[in-house]
Write a structure and sequence with these properties.
transport, transmembrane helix, 30 helices, Mannitol-specific EII, Chain A, Alpha-Beta Plaits, Amino acid/polyamine transporter I, PTS_EIIA_type-2_dom, 3 domains, membrane, transmembrane
Length: about 700
């Protein structure tokens, strides 16, 4: 993938929480409770709580795949890479339309609530607001998310006040008249259990904000932590506010009135905020509703626009939709999404659209849960989620069953609409995309009978995603580089001599059999035991008895001579650098992450030339590290670091989270211990946390730079 097609990783944990939570608090709280109570009566608040529980399996599945494949496109990308491009086209188009419908519905809510205060045309206001959100999205996801966070904080504060005052009001009502609240909940199930489950399916759309995180996963920092944690926090907060908030509406509004109330939150506010001046409570809730609809509309446009972007990048849509602007936003995809949302605003109906969006999203959940099973069963090593769904595969099976049951309760009309979207996706794929797409999903890696259709490039693509994700916290890559053994060979040698040399070291360190070690390095190309890049061969293997990762680097000043002792899988002669990485058989995923990081380094421009020009082991290791977690300091007289000269390492006061890992003295590099006495002209390699390393850099190296500048 070209750099220009990559989105910026700007979003943190609070951004994830804000996008998800903001996308859920709009029609679900301020509009749907009244409509939903028509199906089940006072038990509507229970339907909201049940929907929050029943979405858990799908949430866990989305979180797992999102941390394995943090790419734009969400459900589309998951389905495409697991079940193939046909399902990707269906899922992508369907989810795209469902999100846009929900977004259009939310933006219309802005116009409806604005009309409470001003005499303005509802749909005209909605169109203007849509264009405003388009501008915000065009300037970048980070700025969009910053706007989102303001909405969400304001909204949660208002809703917490609403719930607190509502519960106090209910307690006062019970104190005055014990029967006043109880009557509101009789009969509890107006249409029996069937009505309750129909309502659960109906209000399911209120929780679809969780799925929006998957569509912006590519732009999230530390996705393996922030995606699952942000989704869980968002679901907990949202479920509690929905359950308590709707309970209050049921308690203070007469059932017959609630079933026909299009603004139940504002009506409830009249009863709750009696201690405020007239209509102030209604005004506060109306402002909160405007913020909620705005946050959903904003987040909806942000996330839904990533679907045509991702499909354009994969050739299921025209390539123009994958273009990125200077601010890191998919401009054409945002413009298309804006136009379609405006179209929906002009033709939107309320209750039917909610059912349609819920039905298709439930179908997507069926496919997503099945996708987790497919990825796990495919045994693709580079499928490396940072979060694993609990109780696999039972959680996924339960999720599939739940979605099927709820679809049945939603009725025939939504089912027919969903079938129409499926047919549209099939037609689009076969008449537009089929000739342009040359890949299949992970399902072909699962079923041996379909082995002839296995798409090997999928594993390469997952390796590229591993590179983009980077190392996981706790992966000892830097430590492995620091402890690596480097051999600089100046005379002619061949591969067999190198393999014998490094195998002797590994066997001595880990008590391995030399013949088995060599066999592992050269005779398992199907397992990527060696990877070739220009002038470099990277060998990797996993052994029993290896406790921690180990690396050896062989740099040959003259090209390696002799025949290859293994099959030539893309090896381009001459080769002058060989890197050997070994790890435990019990840590295959860690080995892949470290290997992907190593390849990312070795693919730097002119790296071979740079390494061949180095004779210092310290320089080589520092060049391979090249990150903000280390600094190299030379001990010189007349500098602040002069105070270290002549003292034992254990006497040196440094920040707690840094460590002197290498000392170069007289062109020889060694790992120091606490009793090592530091000497003038020693060069120290210090590894540690970025903040402390930055402080050391300012304390020691900037002094030298200023001194040089002054003397010049």
């Amino acid at each position: 993938m070209a750099v220009k097609d990559k989105l910026k990783k700007d979003l943190g944990l609070f951004d994830v929480f804000a996008i998800s939570t903001g996308a859920m608090f709009s029609s679900g709280f301020f509009l749907l409770p009244g409509i939903a109570s028509h199906y089940t009566g006072p038990s509507v608040f229970l339907a909201y709580l049940l929907a929050g529980v029943l979405i858990l399996p799908s949430m866990f599945s989305i979180a797992e795949i999102s941390t394995a494949l943090p790419k734009s496109g969400g459900a589309y990308f998951f389905l495409d890479r697991s079940l193939g491009p046909v399902m990707g086209a269906i899922g992508g188009l369907g989810t795209y339309f469902a999100l846009m419908l929900k977004t259009a519905f939310a933006i219309i809510g802005i116009g409806a609530y604005a009309a409470i205060f001003w005499e303005v045309p509802v749909k005209m206001v909605a169109i203007v607001v849509t264009l405003l959100f388009m501008i915000l999205n065009l300037v970048g996801a980070k700025k969009t998310s910053a706007f989102q966070k303001v909405f969400v904080v304001f909204l949660i504060v208002i809703l917490v006040i609403f719930i607190f005052n509502g519960m106090l009001s209910i307690l006062r009502m019970e104190f005055v008249n014990k029967d006043s609240v109880g009557n509101q909940f009789t009969p509890f199930f107006s249409n029996g259990i069937e009505g309750l489950f129909a309502t659960v399916g109906f209000v399911f759309v209120s929780y679809l904000g969780l799925t929006k995180i998957a569509s912006v996963a590519e732009e999230i920092k530390k996705p393996e932590r922030n995606i699952p944690l942000g989704m869980i926090l968002s679901l907990v907060v949202t479920s509690l506010i929905y359950g308590l908030g709707v309970f209050i509406m049921v308690a203070v509004i007469q059932p017959s009135e609630l079933a026909n109330d299009m603004a139940p939150a504002a009506t409830a506010a009249k009863h709750i905020f009696k201690w405020l001046p007239e209509n102030v409570g209604v005004m506060v809730m109306s402002i909160a509703a405007l913020a909620a609809f705005a946050s959903t509309g904003n987040a909806g446009l942000l996330s839904s626009s990533r679907y045509p972007f991702a499909m354009g990048r994969d050739k299921l849509f025209p390539a123009v939709f994958s273009k990125i602007g200077s601010n890191g936003s998919p401009i054409v995809a945002i413009l298309l999404t804006t136009a379609v949302i405006i179209l929906f605003i002009l033709v939107l109906s309320e209750e039917g659209i909610v059912k349609l969006a819920s039905t298709f999203q439930l179908l997507i959940f069926i496919f997503v849960n099945f996708s987790v099973i497919v990825f796990r069963k495919s045994k693709i090593e580079s499928y490396d989620p940072g979060y694993l769904s609990p109780y696999y595969p039972y959680m996924q099976i339960v999720g599939i069953i739940i979605s099927c049951v709820l679809i049945i309760y939603l009725g025939w009309m939504p089912f027919l609409f969903t079938s129409g979207i499926i047919i549209m996706g099939l037609l689009w794929y076969y008449f537009y995309s089929r000739g342009k797409v040359k890949r299949e999903g992970a399902i072909y890696h699962w079923f041996a009978l379909l082995g002839e259709n296995r798409y090997d490039e999928l594993e390469n693509e997952l390796m590229e995603i591993l590179k983009e994700k980077g190392l996981r916290e706790g992966d000892p890559f830097d430590e492995t580089i620091i402890k690596s053994k480097i051999s600089i060979i100046k005379k002619k040698t061949d591969f067999e001599a190198i393999l014998n040399k490094v195998s002797d070291v590994f066997c001595a360190n880990f008590n391995l059999c030399k013949e088995n070690a060599i066999e592992k390095f050269i005779n398992s190309a199907s397992d990527d035991s060696y990877i070739a890049i220009p002038n470099v061969v990277v060998f990797n293997a996993k052994f029993k008895g290896v406790i921690y990762p180990s690396m050896q680097i062989v740099i040959c000043k003259t090209p390696i001579d002799g025949k290859l002792p293994f099959k030539d899988y893309g090896i381009k002669m001459p080769v002058q650098i060989c890197v050997f990485l070994v790890n435990s058989v019990e840590k295959p995923k860690q080995q892949l992450r470290m290997l992907s990081r190593l390849l990312d380094i070795l693919e730097r421009e002119d790296i071979v030339k740079a390494l061949l020009n180095m004779d210092s082991h310290r320089e080589i290791k520092e060049y391979l590290l090249q990150n903000e977690r280390f600094v190299s300091i030379k001990l010189l007289k007349g500098t602040p670091q002069e105070e270290m000269v002549g003292r034992q390492l254990k006497e040196i006061k440094l920040p707690k989270d840094v460590l002197i890992v290498l000392v170069e003295r007289d062109n020889k590099t060694f790992a120091p211990n606490g009793s090592t006495i530091l000497m003038n002209n020693d060069i120290l390699t210090i590894l540690g946390e970025a903040k402390s390393i930055s402080k050391l850099y300012k304390d020691y190296l900037t002094y030298e730079i200023k001194k040089i500048d002054t003397s010049s």
